[in-house]
Amino acid sequence: MMDAHDELIERVAALLRRRQSPNPRLVARVLDAVDGRPRRWWRSVAWPSAPFTYAASTLAAAGLLIGFLSHEASDAAADRAAMAAPGAQALPVLPVARDARAAALVPVQFTLRDVRASQVALVGDFNGWSQTATLLEPGNEPGTWSVTVPLASGRHVYAFVVDGQQWMADPRAPKARDLDFGRENSVLIVQAP
Amino acid sequence: MTLRRLFLISLASGAAASVAHAQAARLDASADLGLRRAVEREVVAARAIGLPERLLIAKANEGIAKRATPKRITDAVAALGKRLQVARDQLAPNPSEDEIAAGADALYVGVPAPILKKMRAAWPDRSLALPLGVLTELVAKGLPANRAAQVVTDLMARGATNVQLYALAQSVQGDVAAGWAPEAALDLRARGVMSLLPPAPAASAFTNPRRP
């Protein structure tokens, strides 16, 4: 008896497995009939069979992917347009991202080696040539100094002021002549990504 | 953390940032009264015509840090004010402060003012801070201003990117430091960048403006 019952169950299960996607409306009607409750319209709606969170996250991922691909495609199209017609002004798809006047800041590290210095200040067009705004920190190795400053894209001139007195161009950077005051600065070109 | 506390912290951060900015735009405390008044006059004049006064104060601070005489500092600030005005006008209609400063730097090393207008025409909606910086550096390295300007504006019109312009400046800088003649270095490096760009249009707006 037990074997016959198991065999019946197995046959029903196999029959159900063969049905790839049971009709959700049929399932709802069967369940309503079993429960003895009246049919509601929302029970006929074909909700995703997977848990909703899973479906929602899948949809969200798909949306993100589509958004990313369309963004990339529009960027590429803008690039192609610019390449195809040099000098022509292509209308940017994302004007803020591509053509922002306020350029992104790039962290730049300034270093100096001076074993006699007890204080080193960085002065430049980016800090209003203030001798107190940007002080270098001493490194672990005696005589080494450094500071990292976020800089905008473009050309910058700067120098070090040692111990509040001695003007010193960066020995590791190209020099910029100073026609106004006669003491040369160092020059740095920053390119934002 | 409550919303109120977050709000107060953000207010405090904003205030701190404003204070930092104000400090950066303040004349050095060691300036004597005569210099202070002279710089103030220039700043008021600049403010009246909408120029970035911060740049004038920075120039004065540079002079003070370099121990220049008050007369020399005042002259330098006044000259910068004039350059800023020319740069602003040439880079119209709506140049950023960075662009005006970069334009003034270009004028300072000898770039003719109309070149700025050509560069704006080449890149009407993109920041010119980097291209102007590249041009300034090329001229500062000894290249004739018109030749350097022609190369940079041609590259911009051909679709060169900021990265390519930056690479050009770096390469020329390295070549000159290695003993190359600046013009030879520029020609060679510009050819290298050009080879990466699409073919030139039939008529270049910069080399033959009247050609149909």
Number of helices of chain A: 4
Distance linking N and C termini of chain A = 77 Å
Determine Rg of chain B (CA atoms, Å): 21 Å
> What is the β-strand count of chain A?
8
Low-confidence stretches of chain A: 38-102
Query: What amount of the residues of chain B lies in strands?
Result: under 5%
* Helix-strand category of chain A: alpha+beta
How many structurally independent domains of chain B?
2
CATH homologous superfamily name of the largest domain in chain A?
Answer: Immunoglobulins
- The oligomerization state is heterodimer
Question: What is the count of β-strands of chain B?
Answer: 0
Mean pLDDT of chain B: 86
Stated plainly, the CATH topology of the largest domain in chain A is called Immunoglobulin-like
Query: Fraction of residues of chain B in helices?
Result: over 70%
Largest sheet of chain B: none
The end-to-end distance of chain B, rounded to whole angstroms, is 67 Å
- Indicate the radius of gyration of chain A in whole angstroms: 35 Å
Task: Summarize the amount of helix of chain A as a percent range.
Answer: 25-40%
Concise structural overview:
Chain A is an alpha+beta fold.
Molecular structure report:
The complex is a heterodimer of chains A (193) and B (212). Chain A has helices at residues 2-18, 24-35, 52-84, 95-99; strands at residues 106-113, 120-124, 137-138, 144-151, 154-162, 166-168, 175-176, 185-190. Chain A has 193 residues and is α+β, with helices and mostly antiparallel strands. Chain A has three domains: 2-43, no CATH class; 52-97, no CATH class; 106-190, Immunoglobulin-like, CATH 2.60.40.10. In chain A, the strands form two sheets. In chain A, strands 2, 5, 6, 7 and 8 form a five-stranded antiparallel β-sheet that branches. Chain A has a three-stranded antiparallel β-sheet with strand order 1-4-3, with no helix packed on it. Chain B is an all-alpha fold and 212 residues long. Chain B has two domains: 33-90; 113-212, no CATH class. Chain B contains ten helices and no strands. In chain B, helix 5 runs parallel beside helix 7 (129-140), helix 7 packs antiparallel against helix 8 and helix 7 runs parallel beside helix 9 (162-177). Chain B starts with a helix and ends in an 18-residue tail after the last helix. Residues 10-24 and 207-212 of chain B have low confidence and may be disordered. Classes of the chains: A alpha+beta (193), B mainly alpha (212).
